[in-house]
Task: inverse folding
């Protein structure tokens, strides 16, 4: 029992230390981006690289996740003769929760791990030290484009993934559930509006920031040769998934509050 407590205590301590280190690292990255010039072009290049590399995986996942949600919701709605709401419920679930989470996990596994491995390899082979010796700021040259590229790409991939998911869901609903595509689309505005999209975009940006921060930090601070690079990749994946799950709880609460305030404001303050 004491060994289990020691393991849990060590993990909590390591997680807290990791959060502090990542926050200081992110502050340094943002400060560097704000005080240097010539960052726009490499950021745009990184956005294109991340987006195009991740789009096939996101599209594939979006189609099947949407199809699964359609089948699951239809089983319940059929019991209450409420299939007319299938399109709205399915799209709402994808936009509010499933979309941001799935895309962030895909980014963590594909782009986050690759970024940590790439930067870690550059660190242990002293390429980053060589960049510093040449008088170039490695944070600006290596981290700023990757950091903002991942964050912005997460939002782009969310929008594309949601659209692909809706199309795939509509096709499955037509073929397997007998739902007319127009009926499917007409139900979407009942459950999803621009406040929902704004909340989903906020979640996606938060999760993308977590992926970019942890992956870049772990890769940039790697040490210990090839074993150290492997450890950096493993820990980046563990901490990214852990932080995303924790952030999901808080962002859901925040987004729900903001949506309620937005509806209250749109209704002119009426209760």
Result:
């Amino acid at each position: 029992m004491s060994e289990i407590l020691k393991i849990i205590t060590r993990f909590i301590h390591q997680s807290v230390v990791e959060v502090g280190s990542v926050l200081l690292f992110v502050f340094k990255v943002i400060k560097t981006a704000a005080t240097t010039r010539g960052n726009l072009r490499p950021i745009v290049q990184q956005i294109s690289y991340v987006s195009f590399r991740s789009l096939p995986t996101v599209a594939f996942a979006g189609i099947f996740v949407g199809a699964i949600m359609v089948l699951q919701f239809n089983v319940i709605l059929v019991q209450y003769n409420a299939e007319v709401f299938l399109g709205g419920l399915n799209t709402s679930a994808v936009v509010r929760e499933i979309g941001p989470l799935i895309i962030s996990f895909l980014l963590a596994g594909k782009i986050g791990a690759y970024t940590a491995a790439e930067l870690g390899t550059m660190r242990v082979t002293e390429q980053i030290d060589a960049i510093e010796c040449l008088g170039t700021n490695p944070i600006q040259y290596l981290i700023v484009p990757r950091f903002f590229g991942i964050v912005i790409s997460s939002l782009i991939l969310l929008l594309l993934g949601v659209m692909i998911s809706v199309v795939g869901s509509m096709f499955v609903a037509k073929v397997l559930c007998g739902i007319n595509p127009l009926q499917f689309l007409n139900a979407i505005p009942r459950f999803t509006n621009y406040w929902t999209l704004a909340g989903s975009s906020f979640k996606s940006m938060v999760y993308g920031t977590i992926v970019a921060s942890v992956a870049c930090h772990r890769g940039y601070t790697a040490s210990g040769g090839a074993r150290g690079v492997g450890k950096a990749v493993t820990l980046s994946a563990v901490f990214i998934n852990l932080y995303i799950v924790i952030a999901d709880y808080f962002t859901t609460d925040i987004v729900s509050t903001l949506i309620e305030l937005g509806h209250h404001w749109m209704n002119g303050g009426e209760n």
Q: What stands out?
A: The chain has one domain: 39-251. Residues 39-251 form one domain.
